Amino acid sequence: MCSESTEWRREFAQEARSERPDLARLCLLIGAEGDPALGQAGLDEADIELDRLAGLLPYGLTGPRAWASAVGELLGTRLGFHGTPADYQRLESSLLPQVLRRRRGLPILLSVVWIEVARRAGAHVYGVALPGHFVVGFGAPEAPVPEQVLADPFAGGRLLTGPDAELLVAGATGGSLEPSMLLPADPLDIVVRVLNNIRAWAAARPERTDVALWAVDLSLALPSHPARLRLERAQLLVQRGEFLAGAAEMEAYADVVEAVEPATAETVRNRARAARAILN
């Protein structure tokens, strides 16, 4: 791994553990992993672009509906940020610098653009993690008299009514919209979801274990993560032909889970032995 990538991973881990993690910076660093040619200049350019877009919003906006309409008119209508079903098949759709350049992406990355541009201009804005479809909220849902306006960046910033949100949830889960689904998403939860999308993209492409591995490594750098990610990493190493390293990580994982899942631990140790045997 090049020194620049090592430094970016160190910064990612530090930022994720800071008191107030910077969503844009974390997503930009994910983008740097996905596009090593980007370099520091590319990261700086993407950050400057977010500032530039924020500067294009009109002054004096008040109220969540005015903010949602203005951001949607700028990003969705004038500049053409939106998504299509085909964007789910592209890794670039999960990389913030590429989304800023292409003006296309997954709902969650387009939402990050909306959030960061509006926040830098002074809006009360946040992500809303509806099941199966990420959107953006303007206003203060936790206020005594909440006023919340939802916008769908994937649809070019279309404002969502209550029934619209209910339909999105019903289409994704078959269930009903719960009030808790409309609360602001934590920045680290957004980052986890971005990395999960990347891992899912790579899992469907066995030849892209390189992408799966760095997505797992960044997930492991977060303050909280499932222990099973360690096993996923070990299996990826074996897939890539790094049998000894993969076997060692499998054994370390087995040691961790043995007390609560002895059968799982034994299965994983058998896999580790099989990986080592390949070299014999």
Automatic annotation (TrEMBL):
Residues 50-196 form the Protein SirB1 N-terminal domain. It holds the Pfam family Transglut_core2. InterPro entries: SirB1_N. It comes from the Bacteria. Belongs to the UPF0162 family. This is Protein SirB1 N-terminal domain-containing protein. It comes from Streptomyces purpureus. The lineage of its organism: Bacteria, Bacillati, Actinomycetota, Actinomycetes, Kitasatosporales.
